[in-house]
Amino acid sequence: MSTALSAVVLVGSLKSSSEPSSSEVLGRQVLDALAEHGVVGSVVRLADHDIRPGVEVDMGDGDQWPLVRQQVLAADILVVATPIWMGQPSSVTKRALERLDAELSETDEEGRMLTSGKVAAVAVVGNEDGAHHVSAELYQALDDVGFTIPANAVTYWVGRAMEGVDYKDLDEVPEAVAKATATLALNTAHLARLLRESPYPAG
């Protein structure tokens, strides 16, 4: 019997885990939805780690990206959960994407990228427009570094512009968000299972 699929959520909140985060709330809801499809997972709050700028696997001098990278490469599914800041993914999220650029030159014995056959999805929260723009940026970056993007692989919530209500403060999950999260989980787990059973051919 094959082992369970696994997922890791990289939370790009600007705050450390000592503070509540709407991005982490939605990311954990994605994990809960994935669990319904036999996926086990964990969360990494990127701001808790000293991730140095650069595009190498290890930038040295106390760089903690290699610890995060190990979890990404060990998982079948990567979920990137980010807030929207100034219409963009957070700077913390962008730092992680820059570090994933190193995977372009990391290959297995058959010449495939180490991310080949891994599936990625996106969760976005904010109090302004831009969820589609942010997910498009993340999709392209994740595809560039070898991840496969399923259909409908995004869930998001965007509150009213110029107001102070955060996703984490909602009394209940909006129906549209719950539906998007459920679809993301269904499609992501399905594709990850297919790729595990039938990996991409070597080039």
Automatic annotation (TrEMBL):
<dbReference type="InterPro" id="IPR005025">
    <property type="entry name" value="FMN_Rdtase-like_dom"/>
</dbReference>
<dbReference type="GO" id="GO:0016491">
    <property type="term" value="F:oxidoreductase activity"/>
</dbReference>
<feature type="domain" description="NADPH-dependent FMN reductase-like">
    <location>
        <begin position="8"/>
        <end position="155"/>
    </location>
</feature>
<dbReference type="Pfam" id="PF03358">
    <property type="entry name" value="FMN_red"/>
</dbReference>
<protein>
    <submittedName>
        <fullName>NAD(P)H-dependent oxidoreductase</fullName>
    </submittedName>
</protein>
<dbReference type="InterPro" id="IPR029039">
    <property type="entry name" value="Flavoprotein-like_sf"/>
</dbReference>
